[in-house]
Design brief:
A hairpin with a 4-residue loop joins strand 12 and strand 13. It is built from seven helices and 16 strands. Helix 1 runs parallel beside helix 3. The strands form four sheets. It has a six-stranded mixed beta sheet. Strands 8-9-10-11-14-15 form a six-stranded mixed beta sheet, covered by helices on one side. With about 280 residues, the chain is an alpha/beta fold. GO terms for molecular function: hydrolase activity.
């Protein structure tokens, strides 16, 4: 089974973003008869639009979702469709990741839980994702032919408890669509992905945005990576747009978990070491 991450340089131009993804899928190197898991980055079809723009694209007919479902079906790939804006019950917008099967049917979706309200010393000064998006509340693990697929988005990677929860919920592979800033990406991206892979003993698929977006108003780090449960980099693309591919070795997952059974050694699952009892 093969996984392919697409590093994108998305903008506010939905049609251009869609055309790029389609043209890349046309030239995706594939092994005949082998199932293919494709992961797109955060904001793959709409990057940097203001709330009104995100709202406009998240209407009831969900055009972005339909376009991505059509791609999955047309190319016959399982698709972790980065993020698209999706309307919440109270008229706000979630940053939502869909998982489609190779017929374009939705297997599940996840809404970004941790929003990036952070000051970054990169000239942009502040990011206030919660001005545009509302946070999700649900942890999601989807059953796929590739294994149990946990979902997390971008800033979520900084919250180890979430990855621990995904592992406890059965995750074997964790897809992480992202759009890390250039500054924080350079400092932390690779280390965070590897730490989460090692701790959770999962494959981690970090599909990234790269480069300058929307005439330079935003810059992202790139370096899409496939990390195995031992923390090794199996494949990566530092810069530019294009595919990062690898074949996942599920035996490796079993080997790592059997040889080092951290999940069953974990004493913090039991109450006796929790903070309320500290200092006794
Ligand atoms: O706002 C948009 O248009 C799209 N969303 C994003 O780019 C999101 C929120 S601003 N980016 C991140 O979460 C970066 C996290 C990050 O860089 C870190 O954790 O260091």
């Amino acid at each position: 089974m093969q996984v392919s991450l697409l590093q994108c340089q998305s903008s506010r131009d939905v049609q251009a973003n869609l055309a790029f993804i389609e043209s890349q899928l046309e030239r995706l190197p594939r092994v005949a008869g082998e199932p293919q898991l494709v992961v797109l980055p955060e904001c793959c079809l709409l990057f940097g639009g203001h709330e009104s723009e995100q709202l406009a694209w998240s209407g009831e007919d969900e055009p972005l979702k339909q376009a991505l479902a059509a791609l999955a079906a047309h190319f016959g790939v399982y698709l972790v469709a980065g993020t698209v804006p999706a309307r919440s019950g109270d008229g706000r917008v979630y940053s939502r990741c869909y998982v489609f099967d190779d017929a374009g049917t939705v297997l599940g979706h996840y809404e970004k839980i941790h929003l990036f309200d952070v000051d970054v010393a990169d000239g942009t000064k502040t990011y206030r994702e919660s001005d545009t998006f509302c946070p999700g509340d649900n942890l999601v693990v989807v059953d796929t032919p590739f294994g149990k697929l946990g979902l997390a988005i971008c800033y979520d990677v900084r919250f180890p408890d979430m990855f621990r929860a995904l592992r406890l919920a059965g995750a074997e592979i964790i897809a992480l669509p992202a759009a890390f800033t250039r500054v924080t990406g350079e400092a932390h991206w690779e280390i965070l992905l590897k730490a989460r892979a090692i701790e959770s003993q999962c494959f981690v698929l970090g599909a990234a945005q790269w480069g300058a977006h929307n005439t330079g108003s935003r810059e992202t780090w790139g370096q899409s990576m496939i990390i195995d449960p031992w923390g090794r980099t199996v494949a990566e693309l530092a810069q530019g747009t294009g595919w990062v591919q690898a074949r996942l070795d599920r035996d490796e997952l079993a080997r790592v978990r059997t040889a080092m059974p951290v999940a069953s050694h974990d004493r913090f699952k039991a109450p006796e070491l929790l903070p309320a009892k500290a200092g006794k």
